[in-house]
Design goal:
By secondary structure, the protein is an alpha/beta fold. It contains ten helices and 14 strands.
Length: about 350
Protein backbone atom coordinates (compact mmCIF):
# COMPACT_ATOMS: atom_id res chain seq x y z
CA UNK A 1 0.00 0.00 0.00
CA UNK A 2 2.80 2.41 0.91
CA UNK A 3 4.68 1.53 -2.27
CA UNK A 4 1.58 2.09 -4.41
CA UNK A 5 1.03 5.49 -2.78
CA UNK A 6 4.65 6.48 -3.41
CA UNK A 7 4.37 5.42 -7.05
CA UNK A 8 1.19 7.47 -7.43
CA UNK A 9 2.78 10.55 -5.87
CA UNK A 10 5.82 10.29 -8.13
CA UNK A 11 3.79 9.63 -11.27
CA UNK A 12 1.56 12.67 -10.63
CA UNK A 13 4.31 14.86 -9.11
CA UNK A 14 2.06 15.36 -6.07
CA UNK A 15 4.91 16.47 -3.79
CA UNK A 16 5.41 19.53 -6.00
CA UNK A 17 1.77 20.27 -6.75
CA UNK A 18 1.61 23.30 -4.45
CA UNK A 19 4.50 25.02 -6.20
CA UNK A 20 4.21 23.85 -9.81
CA UNK A 21 0.48 23.45 -10.38
CA UNK A 22 -1.66 26.37 -11.50
CA UNK A 23 -5.37 25.66 -10.89
CA UNK A 24 -7.66 26.53 -13.81
CA UNK A 25 -9.36 29.86 -13.19
CA UNK A 26 -12.80 28.40 -13.85
CA UNK A 27 -12.38 25.90 -10.98
CA UNK A 28 -11.06 28.52 -8.56
CA UNK A 29 -14.05 30.76 -9.29
CA UNK A 30 -16.86 28.26 -9.81
CA UNK A 31 -16.09 24.90 -8.15
CA UNK A 32 -17.74 24.89 -4.74
CA UNK A 33 -15.67 24.35 -1.63
CA UNK A 34 -13.15 25.87 0.74
CA UNK A 35 -11.64 25.80 4.24
CA UNK A 36 -13.00 28.20 6.83
CA UNK A 37 -12.45 28.07 10.59
CA UNK A 38 -11.60 25.22 12.95
CA UNK A 39 -13.56 22.91 15.21
CA UNK A 40 -13.40 23.07 19.01
CA UNK A 41 -10.72 20.37 18.85
CA UNK A 42 -8.68 22.35 16.31
CA UNK A 43 -9.54 20.50 13.09
CA UNK A 44 -9.90 22.57 9.88
CA UNK A 45 -13.42 22.87 8.45
CA UNK A 46 -14.14 22.21 4.79
CA UNK A 47 -17.48 23.52 3.46
CA UNK A 48 -19.01 22.80 0.07
CA UNK A 49 -22.39 23.30 -1.59
CA UNK A 50 -22.59 20.49 -4.13
CA UNK A 51 -25.81 21.56 -5.84
CA UNK A 52 -24.33 24.98 -6.63
CA UNK A 53 -21.88 23.48 -9.10
CA UNK A 54 -22.83 24.14 -12.72
CA UNK A 55 -22.27 20.60 -13.94
CA UNK A 56 -22.80 21.18 -17.66
CA UNK A 57 -20.70 24.34 -17.46
CA UNK A 58 -17.89 22.52 -15.68
CA UNK A 59 -17.79 19.67 -18.15
CA UNK A 60 -17.83 22.12 -21.04
CA UNK A 61 -14.80 23.83 -19.52
CA UNK A 62 -12.50 21.23 -17.93
CA UNK A 63 -11.83 17.51 -17.99
CA UNK A 64 -12.60 15.06 -15.19
CA UNK A 65 -8.86 14.68 -14.72
CA UNK A 66 -8.50 18.42 -14.13
CA UNK A 67 -11.23 18.38 -11.47
CA UNK A 68 -9.63 15.43 -9.67
CA UNK A 69 -6.23 17.15 -9.83
CA UNK A 70 -7.73 20.31 -8.35
CA UNK A 71 -9.21 18.36 -5.43
CA UNK A 72 -5.82 16.71 -4.92
CA UNK A 73 -4.25 20.19 -4.83
CA UNK A 74 -6.77 21.33 -2.19
CA UNK A 75 -6.09 18.25 -0.05
CA UNK A 76 -2.33 18.73 -0.26
CA UNK A 77 -2.86 22.36 0.79
CA UNK A 78 -4.63 21.12 3.91
CA UNK A 79 -1.91 18.62 4.86
CA UNK A 80 1.11 20.76 4.05
CA UNK A 81 -0.09 24.27 4.91
CA UNK A 82 -3.17 24.27 7.14
CA UNK A 83 -2.56 21.24 9.38
CA UNK A 84 1.05 22.12 10.34
CA UNK A 85 -0.06 25.61 11.41
CA UNK A 86 -2.91 24.18 13.50
CA UNK A 87 -0.63 21.51 15.00
CA UNK A 88 1.69 24.25 16.21
CA UNK A 89 -1.19 26.41 17.44
CA UNK A 90 -2.99 23.69 19.43
CA UNK A 91 0.09 21.75 20.55
CA UNK A 92 -1.15 18.42 19.22
CA UNK A 93 -1.13 16.61 15.91
CA UNK A 94 -3.85 17.85 13.55
CA UNK A 95 -4.09 15.61 10.49
CA UNK A 96 -7.82 15.35 9.84
CA UNK A 97 -10.60 17.66 8.66
CA UNK A 98 -14.23 18.33 9.46
CA UNK A 99 -16.44 18.39 6.34
CA UNK A 100 -19.75 20.20 5.99
CA UNK A 101 -21.45 19.04 2.80
CA UNK A 102 -24.51 21.20 2.15
CA UNK A 103 -26.97 19.48 -0.19
CA UNK A 104 -29.44 22.37 -0.35
CA UNK A 105 -31.07 22.26 -3.78
CA UNK A 106 -29.74 18.82 -4.74
CA UNK A 107 -32.12 17.02 -7.08
CA UNK A 108 -32.21 14.16 -9.55
CA UNK A 109 -30.76 16.40 -12.26
CA UNK A 110 -27.50 16.51 -10.30
CA UNK A 111 -27.06 12.74 -10.60
CA UNK A 112 -25.73 13.20 -14.12
CA UNK A 113 -23.34 10.39 -15.07
CA UNK A 114 -20.12 12.38 -15.76
CA UNK A 115 -20.58 14.34 -12.52
CA UNK A 116 -21.18 11.21 -10.43
CA UNK A 117 -18.20 9.45 -12.04
CA UNK A 118 -15.96 12.41 -11.26
CA UNK A 119 -17.13 12.56 -7.66
CA UNK A 120 -16.48 8.84 -7.22
CA UNK A 121 -12.97 9.33 -8.65
CA UNK A 122 -12.37 12.01 -6.01
CA UNK A 123 -13.65 9.67 -3.29
CA UNK A 124 -11.48 6.83 -4.58
CA UNK A 125 -8.42 9.10 -4.56
CA UNK A 126 -9.15 10.13 -0.98
CA UNK A 127 -9.64 6.57 0.25
CA UNK A 128 -6.50 5.31 -1.50
CA UNK A 129 -4.04 8.12 -0.82
CA UNK A 130 -5.44 10.11 2.10
CA UNK A 131 -6.91 7.41 4.37
CA UNK A 132 -8.10 8.44 7.82
CA UNK A 133 -8.02 12.14 6.88
CA UNK A 134 -11.68 12.64 7.83
CA UNK A 135 -12.66 13.49 11.39
CA UNK A 136 -16.41 13.92 10.80
CA UNK A 137 -18.56 14.65 7.75
CA UNK A 138 -21.79 16.56 8.32
CA UNK A 139 -24.19 16.06 5.42
CA UNK A 140 -26.80 18.80 5.86
CA UNK A 141 -30.02 19.78 4.10
CA UNK A 142 -30.27 16.20 2.81
CA UNK A 143 -33.13 16.20 0.26
CA UNK A 144 -35.44 13.52 -1.11
CA UNK A 145 -32.78 12.61 -3.71
CA UNK A 146 -30.21 11.77 -1.02
CA UNK A 147 -30.88 7.98 -0.87
CA UNK A 148 -30.21 7.75 -4.61
CA UNK A 149 -27.07 9.88 -4.40
CA UNK A 150 -25.75 7.76 -1.54
CA UNK A 151 -26.48 4.54 -3.46
CA UNK A 152 -24.20 5.74 -6.24
CA UNK A 153 -21.18 6.52 -4.05
CA UNK A 154 -21.39 4.27 -0.97
CA UNK A 155 -19.33 1.46 -2.48
CA UNK A 156 -16.41 3.85 -2.92
CA UNK A 157 -16.33 4.63 0.82
CA UNK A 158 -14.61 2.49 3.40
CA UNK A 159 -16.56 1.24 6.39
CA UNK A 160 -14.50 3.57 8.58
CA UNK A 161 -15.41 6.59 6.45
CA UNK A 162 -19.11 5.70 6.45
CA UNK A 163 -19.06 5.52 10.25
CA UNK A 164 -17.93 9.15 10.38
CA UNK A 165 -20.80 10.53 8.27
CA UNK A 166 -23.72 12.20 10.05
CA UNK A 167 -26.80 13.05 7.98
CA UNK A 168 -29.22 15.89 8.75
CA UNK A 169 -32.19 17.50 7.12
CA UNK A 170 -32.70 21.21 7.76
CA UNK A 171 -32.40 20.95 11.56
CA UNK A 172 -28.63 20.79 11.68
CA UNK A 173 -27.36 24.05 13.17
CA UNK A 174 -27.46 23.11 16.85
CA UNK A 175 -25.58 19.90 16.04
CA UNK A 176 -22.80 21.77 14.22
CA UNK A 177 -22.42 24.13 17.15
CA UNK A 178 -21.74 21.21 19.49
CA UNK A 179 -18.42 20.65 17.69
CA UNK A 180 -17.75 24.12 16.25
CA UNK A 181 -17.67 27.47 18.07
CA UNK A 182 -20.04 30.03 16.56
CA UNK A 183 -17.23 32.43 15.62
CA UNK A 184 -15.65 29.70 13.46
CA UNK A 185 -18.82 28.95 11.49
CA UNK A 186 -20.28 31.26 8.83
CA UNK A 187 -23.61 32.88 9.66
CA UNK A 188 -25.36 31.02 6.83
CA UNK A 189 -24.69 27.70 8.60
CA UNK A 190 -25.65 28.83 12.09
CA UNK A 191 -22.52 30.61 13.33
CA UNK A 192 -21.48 34.24 13.65
CA UNK A 193 -18.48 34.40 11.28
CA UNK A 194 -18.61 36.91 8.43
CA UNK A 195 -16.23 38.25 5.83
CA UNK A 196 -14.87 41.79 6.42
CA UNK A 197 -17.47 43.05 3.94
CA UNK A 198 -20.27 41.40 5.94
CA UNK A 199 -20.77 38.42 3.65
CA UNK A 200 -22.50 35.68 5.67
CA UNK A 201 -21.12 32.77 3.59
CA UNK A 202 -17.47 33.82 4.00
CA UNK A 203 -17.06 33.74 0.23
CA UNK A 204 -13.48 34.99 0.53
CA UNK A 205 -12.60 31.47 1.69
CA UNK A 206 -15.49 29.27 0.56
CA UNK A 207 -16.31 29.18 -3.15
CA UNK A 208 -20.06 28.81 -3.56
CA UNK A 209 -20.04 27.63 -7.17
CA UNK A 210 -22.45 29.25 -9.62
CA UNK A 211 -23.24 29.43 -13.33
CA UNK A 212 -20.12 29.31 -15.49
CA UNK A 213 -19.90 31.91 -18.29
CA UNK A 214 -19.52 30.34 -21.72
CA UNK A 215 -16.25 32.22 -22.24
CA UNK A 216 -14.65 29.32 -20.33
CA UNK A 217 -16.12 26.65 -22.62
CA UNK A 218 -13.78 24.49 -24.68
CA UNK A 219 -14.72 22.55 -27.81
CA UNK A 220 -15.93 18.93 -27.54
CA UNK A 221 -15.47 18.76 -23.77
CA UNK A 222 -18.84 17.09 -23.05
CA UNK A 223 -18.08 14.11 -25.28
CA UNK A 224 -14.53 13.89 -23.89
CA UNK A 225 -15.88 13.68 -20.34
CA UNK A 226 -18.19 10.76 -21.11
CA UNK A 227 -16.73 7.26 -20.70
CA UNK A 228 -17.96 5.77 -23.96
CA UNK A 229 -16.89 2.26 -23.01
CA UNK A 230 -20.10 1.98 -20.98
CA UNK A 231 -22.41 3.14 -23.78
CA UNK A 232 -24.39 0.92 -26.14
CA UNK A 233 -25.17 1.77 -29.75
CA UNK A 234 -28.38 1.35 -31.72
CA UNK A 235 -29.73 2.55 -35.04
CA UNK A 236 -33.34 3.72 -35.08
CA UNK A 237 -34.64 3.21 -38.58
CA UNK A 238 -36.42 6.02 -40.40
CA UNK A 239 -40.14 6.05 -39.68
CA UNK A 240 -39.77 3.75 -36.65
CA UNK A 241 -39.13 3.66 -32.91
CA UNK A 242 -36.84 1.78 -30.53
CA UNK A 243 -38.21 0.53 -27.21
CA UNK A 244 -35.85 -0.63 -24.45
CA UNK A 245 -37.38 -2.50 -21.50
CA UNK A 246 -36.12 -2.13 -17.92
CA UNK A 247 -37.81 -4.21 -15.19
CA UNK A 248 -38.20 -2.37 -11.88
CA UNK A 249 -38.53 -4.69 -8.90
CA UNK A 250 -38.07 -2.18 -6.06
CA UNK A 251 -40.52 0.75 -5.72
CA UNK A 252 -39.00 4.24 -5.93
CA UNK A 253 -35.97 3.03 -7.84
CA UNK A 254 -34.22 5.57 -10.01
CA UNK A 255 -34.07 5.17 -13.77
CA UNK A 256 -31.38 7.41 -15.26
CA UNK A 257 -30.17 7.91 -18.80
CA UNK A 258 -27.46 9.57 -20.83
CA UNK A 259 -27.48 9.56 -24.64
CA UNK A 260 -26.56 11.41 -27.77
CA UNK A 261 -27.10 11.02 -31.51
CA UNK A 262 -24.69 11.37 -34.41
CA UNK A 263 -25.90 14.39 -36.34
CA UNK A 264 -29.68 14.80 -36.00
CA UNK A 265 -32.35 15.13 -33.30
CA UNK A 266 -34.56 12.31 -32.03
CA UNK A 267 -37.69 11.86 -29.96
CA UNK A 268 -37.30 10.57 -26.41
CA UNK A 269 -39.70 9.49 -23.68
CA UNK A 270 -40.06 7.09 -20.75
CA UNK A 271 -43.17 4.96 -20.18
CA UNK A 272 -44.51 2.18 -17.94
CA UNK A 273 -46.24 -0.76 -19.54
CA UNK A 274 -49.88 -1.26 -18.54
CA UNK A 275 -49.77 -4.74 -20.09
CA UNK A 276 -46.38 -6.34 -19.37
CA UNK A 277 -47.08 -9.33 -21.62
CA UNK A 278 -47.04 -7.51 -24.95
CA UNK A 279 -45.44 -4.64 -26.81
CA UNK A 280 -47.52 -1.47 -26.58
CA UNK A 281 -47.67 1.80 -28.42
CA UNK A 282 -46.78 4.96 -26.51
CA UNK A 283 -50.43 6.01 -26.27
CA UNK A 284 -51.28 2.69 -24.59
CA UNK A 285 -48.66 3.03 -21.85
CA UNK A 286 -48.41 5.25 -18.77
CA UNK A 287 -46.21 8.25 -19.55
CA UNK A 288 -43.43 8.81 -17.01
CA UNK A 289 -41.51 11.34 -19.10
CA UNK A 290 -43.58 12.69 -21.98
CA UNK A 291 -42.03 12.10 -25.39
CA UNK A 292 -40.48 15.08 -27.15
CA UNK A 293 -37.85 15.78 -29.77
CA UNK A 294 -34.44 16.66 -28.32
CA UNK A 295 -31.31 18.08 -29.92
CA UNK A 296 -29.10 15.30 -28.63
CA UNK A 297 -26.77 15.77 -31.61
CA UNK A 298 -25.81 19.17 -30.21
CA UNK A 299 -25.61 18.49 -26.46
CA UNK A 300 -25.83 15.01 -24.87
CA UNK A 301 -29.13 14.43 -23.08
CA UNK A 302 -29.13 13.25 -19.48
CA UNK A 303 -31.88 12.85 -16.93
CA UNK A 304 -33.60 10.57 -14.47
CA UNK A 305 -37.01 9.63 -13.12
CA UNK A 306 -38.23 7.97 -9.95
CA UNK A 307 -40.16 4.76 -10.66
CA UNK A 308 -42.86 4.98 -8.00
CA UNK A 309 -44.12 1.43 -8.55
CA UNK A 310 -42.74 -1.85 -9.86
CA UNK A 311 -43.26 -2.97 -13.43
CA UNK A 312 -41.66 -2.78 -16.85
CA UNK A 313 -40.44 0.67 -17.78
CA UNK A 314 -39.73 1.55 -21.39
CA UNK A 315 -37.10 3.97 -22.64
CA UNK A 316 -38.36 4.94 -26.09
CA UNK A 317 -36.42 6.58 -28.92
CA UNK A 318 -38.78 7.96 -31.57
CA UNK A 319 -37.76 8.43 -35.20
CA UNK A 320 -41.24 7.93 -36.63
CA UNK A 321 -41.41 11.51 -37.89
CA UNK A 322 -38.36 11.10 -40.13
CA UNK A 323 -38.89 9.45 -43.53
CA UNK A 324 -35.40 10.16 -44.85
CA UNK A 325 -32.83 9.52 -42.11
CA UNK A 326 -31.92 6.68 -39.81
CA UNK A 327 -30.63 7.87 -36.41
CA UNK A 328 -27.63 6.37 -34.61
CA UNK A 329 -28.02 6.55 -30.82
CA UNK A 330 -25.30 6.10 -28.20
CA UNK A 331 -26.97 5.45 -24.87
CA UNK A 332 -26.43 4.41 -21.26
CA UNK A 333 -29.44 3.57 -19.09
CA UNK A 334 -29.13 2.46 -15.47
CA UNK A 335 -31.44 1.42 -12.65
CA UNK A 336 -30.44 2.56 -9.17
CA UNK A 337 -32.31 1.08 -6.23
CA UNK A 338 -32.90 3.43 -3.29
CA UNK A 339 -30.63 3.16 -0.26
CA UNK A 340 -31.99 4.43 3.03
CA UNK A 341 -28.44 4.74 4.36
CA UNK A 342 -28.73 2.02 6.98
CA UNK A 343 -24.98 2.22 7.60
CA UNK A 344 -25.06 6.00 8.23
CA UNK A 345 -25.81 8.08 11.28
CA UNK A 346 -29.05 9.68 10.11
CA UNK A 347 -29.69 12.18 12.87
CA UNK A 348 -32.58 14.04 11.26
CA UNK A 349 -34.34 12.53 8.24
CA UNK A 350 -37.45 14.69 8.20
CA UNK A 351 -36.54 16.19 4.83
CA UNK A 352 -36.03 12.94 2.88
Amino acid sequence: MFREDEDWRQKNDVDNILTKYQPPEVLVKYYSGGYNGVSKEGYPIWIEMMANNDQKGLFNSVTKKEIVQYRCYQTECMFKNICPELTKKFGKKIDKAIQIIDLQGLGLKHLWLPAVETYTEVLTLGEAHYPDSLKTAYVINAPAAFPFAYSLVKNFLSEDTRSKIKVFGSNYKEHLLKDIDADQLPVNWGGTAKDPDGDTYCKSKVCLGGTIPDKYYRMNMLSENNDMSKFKTATVQKGSTLQLDYPITVPKSLLRWNFYTDDKDIGFGVFRRTNPDQRQKAAEMEAVVASERVNSHVIPEAGSAVCESTGTYVVRFDNSYSWLNDKKVFYLVEVVEPDAGKDLQIVDSTDF
